[in-house]
Amino acid sequence: MSFFSQILPFQSVRPTTRPAEANGEKEYAIPAYEVKESTEAFGLEIFLPGVAKDAVEINVDQGELVVTGSRAWKAPEGWTEIFRESSQLDLRLRLDLNDVVNVDKINAEFEQGVLRVTLPKAEALKPRRIGVN
Amino acid sequence: MRIVRYQYPRTSVARSAFLNPWAGFENEIDRLVTSAFGSLLGEGTTATTLSHPRVDLYEDKDHFHYRVELPGLKRDDIQLEMGDGVLSISGTRKGFERDGAGEQTTSFTRSVSVPARVQEDKIAARYEDGVLTVTLPKAEEIKPKRIAIQVK
Residues A28-61: pLDDT tens digits? Predict the structure, then answer.
């Protein structure tokens, strides 16, 4: 893997932190995710284990992609926790799209705790040919 | 109106890495810090999530219940083995197709020791929403036997 293919996606689509949220009402865990890039789009894989399909929410607001997954599972009555490694927090990932994504054409699918989001690149970012008159 | 030299925005993104000599370095440091301390920051990196899945253990009166976070697998790609009081969970995750690199796969194995004897032939597993739940019925308790000793 070349050096640039490693860093470029993160330069163009990168997570944003909100201090207000850290001190604020609700705390979220940041899910693991992967970004890959092709000439046409960024491909984003977000890992949301324990989140049901209808508990995934995707919003784009002011150039920021916000993915929230709520974990509804609760231990049934009579179950005692012996040890626990997983987090109980709901998951939230914020990514700054930096105007490099065509927001109207974002597409997402969800299967077995993995959300795959296709972020088509903005037209201005694609290579283009300009005709000569 | 001014005529300026057209620059592909795509190129300028790449160039900013050259113009700011620290851009790549900063990214690299971020990545290193996340991979080293990610779990402490509550920010599971992809590597730890997939190669070392998180396991929770619960108990009720008659069972142990393991819950394992395994996002994005197919049921057929999960293997479970039980022996000598150790439960082994292994599997392969097929990821996105990478440019030119074909399909990426990640394998993992995680073994946990089961705290008490269980009925190994009655273990059940269920995979839903990227979480594997393994239910192990506890072994029938061996009741203390009363042995009558004749005093001669």
Answer: 888 988 888 888 888 999 999 999 999 999 999 8
Mean residue pLDDT across chain B: 75
Instruction: Work out how many CB contacts closer than 8 A connect A with B.
Output: 129
* In the block, residue with structure tokens 């004749």: B150
In sequence order, the 6+-apart residues with CB closer than 8 A to the CB of A8 are A37, B13, B14, B17
> Which residues in chain A come in under a pLDDT of 50?
1-11, 20
Buried b (16+ CB within 10 A) or exposed e, B38-50: bbeeebbbbeebb
All residues of chain A having their beta carbon less than 8 Å from the beta carbon of residue B31 are 6
Which residue is it, tokens 């694609």? A126
For residue B49, list chain A residues with Cβ-Cβ distance below 8 A: 32, 47
- The answer to whether the Cβ–Cβ distance between B9 and A125 falls below 8 Å is yes
